[in-house]
Amino acid sequence: MPNNSSAPTITLHLTIFFWACGALFAKIIDLPAAEIIYLRSVPGFLVLTLLALALKKSFYFRPMDLFFGILIGLLTVTHWVTFYQSVQASTVALGLIMLYTHPVFTTLGEALIHRQRPNRQQLLLALSGLVGIALVSLQSLSSGFNLPAIGLGLISAILFASRNLFSKYLASHIPSLMQMWLQLLTAVVALGLFFGLEPVQSANQQDWLLLALLGVVFVALPHTGYLYALKHLGPTRASLMGMIQPVYAIGLAFLILDEFPTLLEITGGIIILGAASWATLDARGDQPKPRPAL
């Protein structure tokens, strides 16, 4: 069992790995993106409800906590939808590059909250990681400039950065499990009001099995872990360390889909690994050392 100082870092890397696995479901589930997000939220919400009951978590929220919880939930849902729309309007590569501008927005946003200049080292790491992601995706970007997809991707990145900052500075006292429970509840209600029951009725048994696996194992539980890591590592470091997700995705594509990485992808992956590893080591260095036993 890891000690308390390394638990947030290990949790974050496990979370990012599971998110990378979840990206493969976009090619497997034959449903529109927004419907996938709606339907995957249902089993995730149900499982987190059962888990919260088993752990005897309180479902009572103060009015202000409930307000911020729903607000963060709306940010999360809109981030999911705009990211999928960006990918659908272009390629996974372009959507990924736009999404991973979020460490830059997070670094600037956290500096604004603290009313200080952005940390130069963290800003440099964010930009370095973005260069690496661009190299990883360069071959797939040869189709040209796609303004709507770029706009949607940037909106998704800003929403994700905002969600993480709000979670850290407005709702960090709410248990991570209950934060994610509120976000999934918001997703189910908001998208349910928009779509109604039609997507529920149109999904077949195989779709539901895949959606349940996606919603629980690759969305609900990893996002809960990410919120836990946010509390201990902070939004900027968590976002910098999370840049490693494309490297995990390339490795999984090689192992599962037999897609061999190109030289550009390997070069970009090395840059991303360097930036994420530096952020990981920097985070460990800042965490308090355990006290010696008396």
Automatic annotation (TrEMBL):
GO terms for cellular component: membrane. Coiled coil: none annotated. It is found in: Membrane. It comes from the Bacteria. The keyword Cell wall biogenesis/degradation does not apply. Its main location: membrane. The keyword Transmembrane helix applies. Residues 13-137, 149-277 form the EamA domain. It is a multi-pass membrane protein. Keywords: Membrane, Transmembrane, Transmembrane helix. InterPro entries: AA-Vitamin_Transporters, EamA_dom, EmrE-like. It holds the Pfam family EamA. The chain crosses the membrane at residues 36-54, 66-86, 92-111, 123-141, 147-166, 178-196, 208-228, 240-257, 263-281. Belongs to the EamA transporter family. This is Permease of the drug/metabolite transporter (DMT) superfamily. It comes from Reinekea forsetii.
